[in-house]
User: Fold these one by one.
Assistant:
Number 1:
Amino acid sequence: MANPIEQFTIRPLVEINLGGLDATFTNASAFMLLTVATVTLFLSLSMRGRALVPGRWQSMAELSYEFIAGLLRDNVGTEGRRFFPFVFTLFMFILFANMLGLMPYGFTITSHIIVTFVLAIVVFIGVTAVGIMRHGLKFFSYFVPSGVPAAVLPLMIPIEIISYLSRPISLSVRLFANMTAGHIMMKVFAGFVIPLGIFGGWAPLGVDVLLVGFEFLVAFLQAYVFTVLTCLYLHDAIHLH
Amino acid sequence: MRVLNKALISGLVGTTTYLTAAVAMAADGGLPQLDVSTYSSQVVWLVISFVALYALMSTVALPRIGEVLEERQNKIDDNLAKAEDLKAQAEAAASAYEQSLASARSQAADAIREVKEKASTEAHNRQAKLTAQLSESIKQAESSINKAKLEALSGIKAVAVDVATAAVSKLINEPANENAVSSAVSTALKSRT
């Protein structure tokens, strides 16, 4: 009997130990490298022609470029140009990780909280560093909301700080929970197909067909949401509201 | 009915066994995501792959796409500029054509007017000349007529005197006084004219 959470199991493939640090090559590591390889191959192969009038593949590559560039321009402004490679890498990595997880026998690296948390904390620390480098100590005025009577400031400032600190948590949990829940749902319905027999099995199969389509939407949407929120945080750090 | 019942029962049994097995396995191992022992290897490989992807994107993939897009934009701008240039040229040519057309038209109108004026003055001159000639010849004709008339009149007087003398001679049967006849004829002619 298939266990709906068995798909998240991490299996060691090659034991590696870096001076006491466990760096075992696992199925998750394999899918991370596969993600990198797929993104790179997609972009380099489709741009190989360098055609003036793009074909289908080149259009897709250019579309992803212009999509992220537009996102950054709309949400951060022209100062966001510097962060384009990072934001683009972030989006493509999460998108392709989510998509590869939907392939049969695939492993979803973004369904692991530690992975999404590391991504979120990198964004959080990076954005905070950008804010402090740009504004110095003035950056902390971000936690003092303007136009608020002085009497409520002792209440508002801690709330602002907590909401700022909870950003990496909400960012990482959103992606992790969406991926995990979707994959568990699909596995649960798939698990019903055989036990319900030749008559009843069609209903969960039909649901699963719909769920697969829905999960592709979620895979794109969550990559998009992660990227948009990163852009908004960058905007806050650069413009201080 | 029996087949349906059987299918329903087997479905229920299957579901129950599946759910109990699933719950048991889940409770047994817990979520693999919460297994802290896998974290260090995951973080190491995530950092490796993300940095690799970042390096590949920022040094190879993105500059290439950017170049292609920029090239296209340049080409488009270039072609637009060229088109604008050609349009300006075409407009200049059109205005030059218009101008030459207008000047040709005015020249033609001038020429026509000149010719018309010339023709009308010539016609005028000729008419005047002709009128003068005509009036001249009319005058000559009149004078010659007058002359002829006078001649004729003077001839008439001699004839009339002759006739009258002959008639008077015949009437009185002796030669008439020619002077008296002549003066009588003159008086008679004068009263006539």
Number 2:
Amino acid sequence: MTFLKPTRRLFLGGALSTAGARLLMPTRARAQTAVALQLSWLHSVQFGGSYIAQDKAYWADAGLEVSLLPGGPNAPVEPPVVAGTALVGISAADYTAAAVNQGAPFKIIGVAMQKNPFAIASLPENPVNSPADLVGKKIGMALANTPVLEALCSINDVDIEQIEVVPTQYDAAPLVQGQVDCLLCWATDLPVAMESQGIESVTMLLADHGYAVHSQTYIATEDSLANRRDQLVALMKGEVMGWQDYHADPEAAAALTVEMFPDAGLDLATQTLQAARQVPLMFSALTEAEGFGWFTDETVAANVETLALLGKPVSPELWDRSILEEVHG
Amino acid sequence: MTTRRPALSRDPAPRAAARSLPRGSGPLLVLLLWEALARATASGFIIAAPSQIVHHLATHAELLLRALGTTGWAALRGFVWGNLAGVLLALAAVLVPRGERLLSTLALLVFCLPLVATGPILRVLYGPGAGPQVTLAALAVYYTTFLPVLVGLRAAPQGWFDLVRSYGRGRMTELREVRLPAALPYLVAGLQIAAPAAFLGAMVGEFTGAERGLGVLTVRALRALDLPATWSIAGLAAAVSMLAFAAVGWLGRRLDLAPPEVLLAPPVVRGRRAWSGLAEAALALGVTLLVWKGSMAVFGLPRFFARRPEDVWSYLVTAPGAGAQRQRLFAALGETLVLAVPGYLAGLLLGAGLALALALRPRLAGAVIPLSIALRSIPIVATAPLIVWALGRGATGSIAVVATMIFFPTLIACQHGLARTPRAVLDLFAVYDASPLLRAQLPAMLPAFFASARMAIPAAILAVTTAEWLATGRGIGALLATVASTSDYGMLWSAIALIGLASVLAHALLASVERRILSRTSAEQLAR
């Protein structure tokens, strides 16, 4: 008798949950359209809001079955979006501008990072607190980012010839080893890695020194905007809801990320730190007033100006707010 | 007695002490030194201590095993497909000798395609999943199997072919009875070279956007400055590759493959007209362009990132600004060649030299071979920081990276070539107490050496472009990295076309040197 009870309860529970699932089936099965969202990097809390949308079925409830495609060092976002493998890609305004100049039919339909995450990281004993401090320093950076440094120098009247560029990739070791004085990296990436390893660092956000480039932008093709509007609206709606939850509790987002991707080699402490660091980049007075992902004609104008300095001239037409207007409207 | 005792004990004592060290103390000493060095340099984040690696392996065992399973399975599938393709290509080249040039050229060109171009295309073609990883693993091995097997299929004495023909039998009998048995030992060499390459290919394939695997963990560990993790993964990759290498070698010995001994093939006199070479080149170019354009059209790849031959032509020749673009590309190629050529030569000499050294001192193999496999199986993004730290960002570091990448296939191929020295010849030298190295073993090694010199051309280009991307920031490698991140696919495909052209030209140059030398030492290789 003593062992029969729990067994029966388990059985009952099982039967009930099956029944529950049956009851839920109709809503879940309602015309689930499969679409893909191409992320710009390996899975991490950088995309925490999307994971929440997935986990809380914000997309499923809207009839969308979204697969989240991870990026990587050799996984540019633009090709799968052009090819139609992914409905939406996570890019950045400068990458998108370059692609559009090469003939890609993209529009930016939302902006996750209001402030660009690019930063100069240095060590406290030899800090870079302002662009002027860069003079005479050795900076480690991926060569592909040379235009970023050029734009920063041009905005702040710093002679780029006075800075020695050392090509580095992927890690903070050259800074720690003293091969370079500072690194051009994301504020949410290498400085977080260093802090996790117990190394204190100084970060100077480029966005605080006139570098206005939207980052982690949502891009879609003109064709999708014309023919797959419903899917775009549903996808962005899920994103907005996911990121609102993220804003309310970044720590929970970090925990969810680690739980959802046990094979990604993520570490909860680092993810929590990164989750907190990206909040001020993604949420501002503007998103407070208008909602997550929003952009205005003024922020677009500032982007167009910086992008011209980067050698990527674009027109404000690259940004299309119609999807966000439907989402928030 | 008492006066002699100290004299006696003085001499043997140190030796006795050395002998009294327990067996296996050498590796222990190395471990201790390693640990001490790692601890002394801990603040520089350069090397991980053995104790840290063991701790990481122990605390992350499950994660690492799952990742190893994922990557290993993709590598295994790529290994099978790639080697199958390599063998079939070699068979086709022998059965249809007229088509050999064309096949070799196409095989070389596909092998030259850099990851920055193939990665996005494969990901779009396959979608999520392991498809790109398997394909890249296969692409990493087919060429290094194709070449040795092709050499092997020809490594039979002319008399045997004459015998087959005198019975009125055709090519198929020749293939079954003579060529295939002759090729098997060379296949073993190819498979051994392929083992670490397939694993590396699968890991690098994960860079194109994968959920899990050792490649994913490598990127994560490098970025997180997590040295114990990086070194654990590198150790795992090296260990698996060594096991696969040993298993293939064991299987080869187990099957006791006895190749025919090639003695004194008559020198080949070939009356080739100049125009036939040109015609072959034109045909190869035409077919290449057709395959390039056709495959992109068949798969419906968007022009945005899959540029056609005519797009490259317009980008480099007819479009406005083509002159400046051409200049940028050729300047980068120049910078690359300055590093690639010395690295290529250094790697070849190192590989062949080591093979000869191991022939003289076989006991060294126990130390040299595992280290070589390790260097070949760990992704260059993981080893490059160490090389850069040790040798700097200048020419030395890049040349070292190139040499590191190509000396291993050369070493293995040459070793197998050396083993082909006819027993009777070695016995003859032994009778006269003469060293067979220069007059018997070196000539026996030459076909294999030239095969590895061919393999090394694309490998050198791959290595130098990676070093440029990661460390020096110059040349084609840096150009590829920059244009890939700015969607400048016109420049990307132009660079690929130029790299392919340069490889084919280098290949042709090498082939003419090879013909000249082998016509004297190994004429059977040139008989068609």
Number 3:
Amino acid sequence: MKFTWSWLKDHLATDAEMAVILDALPMLGLEVESVADRADALKPFHIARIVKAEPHPNADSLRVCQVDTGNGMVEVVCGAPNAAAGLVGVFAPVGAYVPGIDLTLTEADIRGVTSRGMMCSEREMMISDEHDGIISLPEDAPIGASFAAYAGYDDPIIEIAITPNRADCLGVRGVARDLAAAGYGELKPLSDHNIDAKGKSDISWKLDLPADQQQLCPLVTGRTFRGLTNGASPKWMQQRLSAVGQRPISALVDITNYVMLDLGRPLHAYDADRIKGDTLTIRLAKAGEEMTALNEKTYALNDTMLVIADDDGADDLAGIMGGERTGVTDTTSKMFLEIAVFDPVSVAMTGRGLNIHSDARYRFERGLDVTSPDWAMDYVSQMVLDICGGEASEIDRKGGGADWKRQISYRPDRAEELTSVVIAPDKQRHILSTLGFSISDDGDQWQVMPPPWRGDIVGSADLVEEVVRVSGYHLIPELSLPRDRVVSQPAVSDEQKRPIVLRRLMAGRGLSEAVSFTFLDAATAEKYGGGAEALRLVNPISTDLSVMRPSLIPILLNVAARNQARGEGDVGVFEIGPVFTGDAPEDQHLVLAGVRSGMLAPREWTGSARPVDWLDAKADAIAALAALGVRVDALQVRTDAPEWYHPGQSGTLNQGKVTLARFGTIHPAFLAAHDLDDHKGAVAGFEVMLDAVSMPRKKSAQRPMAQLSAFQPVGRDFAFLLDEAVTAENLIRAMKGAGKPLVTEVTVFDVYAGKGIPEGKKSVALSVTLQPTKATLTDAEIEAASAAIIAAVDKHCGGVLRS
Amino acid sequence: MAGADPQALKDTLLAAIGAASTPDALEAIRIEALGKKGELTQAMKSLGQLEGEARREMGQALNAVKDAVTHALESRRSDLAMAELNKRLEEEKVDVSLSHRPETQGVIHPLSRTLEEILAIFAEMGFVVAEGPDIESDYYNFTALNMPEDHPARQEHDTFYMTPNSEGMRKVLRTHTSPVQIRTMEKMKPPIRIIAPGRTYRSDHDATHSPMFHQCEGLVIGDGITMGHLKGCLIEFCRAFFDVDDLPVRFRPSYFPFTEPSAEVDIGCNRDGGGLTIGAGADWLEILGCGMVNPRVLEYCGIDPNAHQGFAFGMGLERLAMLKYGIPDLRPFYDSDLRWMRHYGFMPFDPPSVHLGL
């Protein structure tokens, strides 16, 4: 919402400086977005007259002009076609900065003649795109005077943001009313009118609405103007409209635009001679009906859309945009003026359905003063008659009016209860009255009636906001929240703490944290087991971001690919975030996933560098589970990881039937889809399904007593010949089981197949730690344990001790 | 050998020891002197041929020689060992300016850091964390927040819609974290004091808008909670978060359908010299929105607005992170450029806390 300083002062009688008002507006909730003072840039430009213009001795297209600046004569070389003796224009002296050509003027030798300044076009001063010649002002423009002041450019433009509740401030008058209530002056009364109505209106209204939808148009007024002259609107009006970005068109169009901005009251002007018949009917459109609006686009209407129609059909989208067929033109002499109230919801739905954004729609859908068709008609009529002459008919009024009067019970104490600001009841009464509220006072209990332009006020909290807002939010005291204990409690539950701990763990393991978009493209989603209909966006920002992600792996592969493309081939990243299996809250699952690619560490002189592999991913997954309190040595490894993993180098970590994590080398075919390859080493990844990891039972701070044996542990190495299919997990389980409770640790230190080992077999070497707790182990005890282990490996794994 | 000359023997042996250049040579000398058939051993054995005084004197003299030789051997052995060690150390010399074996260090995303700082501060004020889903119903995202269908504020949300189900029900990606207010109030009885961080979505993608971003919601419901508490709470937060004790904080009237009265919060800043400093200065920066919970919202949640009241606020994590850490652009937050992450990321070993500093 834009207006100028002088425009505001049309409504607000105030001695306040503009700076004071600019500070006051945001504190009333009217955020100042910009202030443009064009006078600053135009300061060096003054009105001047070309006294003499002679051809340049050395250039046919140039003239040498003697310019009366009102402050002496100056010689100027000018190339404009209209530079002629007698022209009154705008002069910029040496030293002036000319914004349109981004140049500070100096004395310039132009083909042998010294030019001491410049006669300017509008474009050179950046006040319009006009550049056909230099500005030509009326004969009587005061020579030597400031051009900005003369042309009205010394009126600063203020732009404020209006929140959706403040429809009343979509007109300058509403802004002035707020300022007046806050004590920055007085709201001036609207100018007087004195209409001598002549006869019935040539056009009359007809409301043709279904019985249950009378609210679509509660009130409309109209009147016919005859004998008008629709020329250019007055200079002051054009200047203001231009200042706020409205192109002046003709007096009648400009008046409707001006009143909309001035009072927040959209109007519509019909050329009465172009209306077919003598009736305008407000009705729902007929299915299949079409009309061409003022924006020259043709719209297909349906029977939910409110229109205004003459005998030839619809030609106005009520509250949104008028029709081309019946609109006013430069030659209109008979005009029918519409001032109506339409249902905001209907206007919003029709506007959205047809995708039309207009200043009128913006105001209608936020809610107008529902009484305005009555009070605005004569005010606007006076303006039309003053500017365009002619006469006005009587007013045609239809509709019973909106039921806007409502009483809100209010206790003045409520302001303090809600905001801790103490505002005396008299002060509150004054504020509310200045804002247009009426109050019937019954001691502590008031009945407050909001004015018809404040549809946003529905309850006592709204009234509190009004009195506190106008008094000033700076009055709200700073109170500390009461706390019932001195030492604060944890803000997160044990479950909410998990991602925080895992984040630190992963970063400590050398992975960096990514935060990625939660959506991806449909084809990728489908490849990773997602893409369900319910997870597709109807209006994605692009097809790449159109489906909620089923897995973090494709997201992190994209991260790896992007970094590889930037020359960072060695990537280690993780993310903790949601994946989706459906659109219900319980279908959103928190997952930790990571991807490593390239070398684990950069190549360097000691030769420690090595490519990442599935073991890194497994280690990451197991570290995460251990941090979550999972007994990782009791997990079962299975080889049922999903298809985006290498079928022979991947696995899942399970507690019974529940898969807690999966890990492995990423399948080369899946890498290719992300523009990744494994030429420079594998890409490995893991996923930990946090929701699947059950919370440990409520833990006590106390630990069980530490059992630290006083006796030396004994290490024994074994090597078994086994079938290739026997897994390390089964082998270790068998050995631990056999050696209970003496065996505390079993570690594989070598796996070998090949020369010397029969086909289909492998040799696995393990070291076993035997930890006595009661006495030092005897040779016999060690022998017995060894024998038990060897027997168990034979029984459960078919393994033979290698000699 | 009875005529041995102890002094001459001593001189000879000590000279030989001094001349020995390897442990082996030294050992040969030892055997030559002190071995079973060594010169000194033989001289000692031949003492029996002497009598009386002469025997005693010669014995003493030979013992003195033996002590001297033993000592000289020890000393020379130690010297030789030291020389040998020094030689080895000299051979083991390296260029210590070479780099150590590389270690990889991951970093924590600035958004996570920001969130943890927020948690630390609000934990001090007795808040607990609440959560809600990213895919939200129209009811929780809008209606229950006093934004019925056709409310003009809805249009400012640039909502992402999910594909409608067979009954035509259409879910949305939550446009703000405010639905967690509703979910919390449905579950919990007052008093309530929660913050709800999370991912939020709006259909907007340019230099200053991302289709996915993060907010943190706050909600306090309790006896006698007023806008004064809201102001105190948020001023405390802003000053602690930005670590500026005298940070100017300004409350401006604003509008949110789910709060009444509503406010926007600005913090002071200084733009002198092209940079941006948070603190006392000529300018203001808008950082969050807040207000007293609208009575209609309480009613939607089954809480009697005549018996309970409270406040709510919401802030953008990206904006807070950008302001605090001087991160100029929004888009790289989601791009995971390792160079950006290393530059703006955080070490995992210094998590924010109130007692160690934010």
Number 4:
Amino acid sequence: MHPMTSRERTDAILAGKPVDRIPHFPFILGFCARNLGYPIATIYSDAEKSFAAQKMTFEQYGVDWGPLYGYASYGTWEFGGQIDMPTGAYQQAPAHKCFPVKAEEDIDRLILPDVRTAGCLPIAMAFSRLQERHETPISVVMGGNFTIAGNICAVERLCRWMIKKPELAHRILRLATDHILDIVTHWVETFGAERVIPQFWEPLASNLIISPRQFRHFVLPYLVETGERIQELGVRHVLHHICGDQNANLPMWAEVPMGDPGLCSFGEEIDIDRAIAVLGAQAVIIGNLDPSLLLTGEPAEILERCRQTIEKGKRAPRGFMFSVGCELAPETPGYHLFLVQKALERFGTLGEP
Amino acid sequence: MDADRRAAFLKQLHDAVVDMDEEKTPRLCREALEAGIDAYTAIMQGLAAGMDTVGRLYEQKEYFVPELLLCSDAMYAGLEVLRPQVKVGEHEAAGKIIMGVVEGDIHDIGKTLVKTMFEAAGWEIFDLGKDVKLERFAQTLRETGADVVALSALMTTSMMAMPKAIAMLKAVDPKVIVLVGGAPLNAEIARQYGADGYAPDAIAAVETAGRLFTKAA
Amino acid sequence: MHLPQDRMTSQERMAALFAGRRPDRVPLGAMSTGFNTRNAGHTVAEAYEDPEKSFADMQWTTEQYGWDPIPQYAGHTVLGAWDFGGQVRMPRGEYEGALVVTDYPVKTEADIERLRLPDPRTAGRIPLALRFARLQAEQGLPVYFFSRSPFTMAANIAGIDRFLRWTMKRPELCEQLLALSIDHIFNVLGLWVDTFGAERVFAWMSSPTESNQLVSPRIVKKFALPYHLAYHRRLADLGVRRFGFHICGEQNLNLPLLAEACPWSHPSVLSFGHEVDLETAAAHFPKDILFGNIEPAVIQTGTPEAVYALCRAAIEKGKNAPGGFILGPGCGLPVGAPPVNVYAMTRAVHDFGWYAA
């Protein structure tokens, strides 16, 4: 029996049909640059090279879905701040250099960015055109509403305002939400609603930063609104990366509309069994091997932990995709990523589709 | 001295170098000086002309590295006699060149031969040797204001130091001419690395440096 | 990785090759050390210093890239400068990928008189190489014994420039060093045969100092060739049948000499750099297995497409060589090669390397 192609596997997962083996969903960016001998910044600054580097690396390591463009500090640049591209030996992704909102009065000056020209969006659009041409999912990556808000005014300030001046926090969250809807609308108009799968990475909403009560008041309403509006645009699936420790938020995530099926990827802090119990009925579960294990672990342990993750994930009723819990470190030894491929071939097969 | 005798002396010097004769070459140099031949002329038209021929023989695959080494020994033995007699300030060097094998690489035989050919062509040379830290190239460039820097590497690993070295040199002096050479390199890699020129062997290195230097001047 | 269409195991593939039969596909090999350890999260120095790590990393990288175990190279078993009392240090820093000689044991004629044959149980990295060899034996792999050619080793004892000057001026000193070199090789090879049995030992030699970038065929004929002949007489006496020869660098002018003498048993594995055309090699050595010859600098600095294209061309030229063909880099696999370029070689074998069933 011929194995399914990556595309067949992705289509089957989204259609709720069986797959031949558990797919490997990518969270692999800087590593691809290293794999081709490029500077890491290439992944974020050059759509063509970034796409090609990811495509070749995914072929080499049997990674499915398709190349992605995005980074966690999204929002700073687009709203008029500055970011630094990763250049040093130990940097892995773009980082904030200067936030657009440093004081209360800066909020008055904020305007909604033009999604055709602001920040990294032209590069993201060029990247999505490559996704279209190569027939991989067109997944524009943004921060979640709360994460974009944190990237506009710095997360410490957002936290202070949530307590002392909640109206300021809400103003920024409002702008972030409107911006997200502008982007999704632009992508839908360009590529058609049925091709677009928006992704939201929400690291700042983790319970290391905010409480579940704050999540209910400052995060959930915006997520729900965004989810509803995106569905009204005709988008079928939304992917949320529920980054970091969000165990206490988890039941609230189940209230977020994310399509049929939705897609939820988890950090290693969340047990896959629990993720399935809470979100498995509505979403494909994606996760969640600890990337630091892949960076420094011993091969036998890596293989075993992959096996455990895969075995758990197989029980997800709407399907499961294997992934690392957060971005794979660029310095990860190639052999360790090969072990993931080996584990998926050895433990992830599901018989003939 | 008549022109014929002078020409015969210079021809003998040339031949002694080509014949790899480390004893005869300095002896002939002393005799040339005693006969009233100008030291600079003896270097350029005797010893250096000899090394030119040696270079041609290498290109024709008549001579290989052992022969080149012995010819260069002969030339240096002659230079030791003649150089102190060259009148200071009378003849300008063809140009100033810094050379060395990059950090992490101890294979210096190619660089030694390159040095010989530049010596013969009348360049002022700052030879940093082998396994040279990249910062030392830049530092020497700051100190000497050299026209050309020649970097050598024999290993695919050590050649990876070259782009960084070139960037450092260009930061010191954007006009400096950087040449690279060594077995794993080629013109395409040299271009990728941002070098101004590449030479496959010692003879070509002198020609390339001369050409780029004249063009820049 | 096991290529999906493989019809043979690596072991079967190698057996077919040496029996003069067509394997299922062109085998793929790499002389690789630091690339392996880095690929598995270790340092380049560990490839040379830690046989257990080096061995594990090699098996893992071999599996990952679908290499066949030919040759399994973890540094030279015997060395010139180090074994005879010179100073060597491990690679360090960003730009080093191999051992670095810091002091040669022979600087003057008088030093030669003081040279003694090294003790195979203690000299240089021989004890480490022995540990590595034991791991190969335990896993049922060929036990590789790596040396340089006597000429290359002799030059490594005295330093290349001194040795090359002596070929012209003091040939008798060269002969002394050459005799010591070959005796040292066989001293240690004897230990390998005693320990593992001649059947298991795969002797591998490289001859970079014989390249025509350095010496003329006349020098090779006078100083190198007699020792190749002696080497193979002694190898046959020991009963070692498997031999591989990395004819390193530009050796086109030496090929007729080597082809005429052809002192090794057939088939041996002859490894060539990109400087030697595979069709030329096949014409000179029809009874031997060709191995090569992808330019390492392209693997290091080129695009995956460029590596893939070179591999395709090499496979098309080499595939039907009368004695057989193995695809591989034309010299050691560069430590810092972008992994995708190494994968491009695997991919090329996968796409173009198949023989009809």
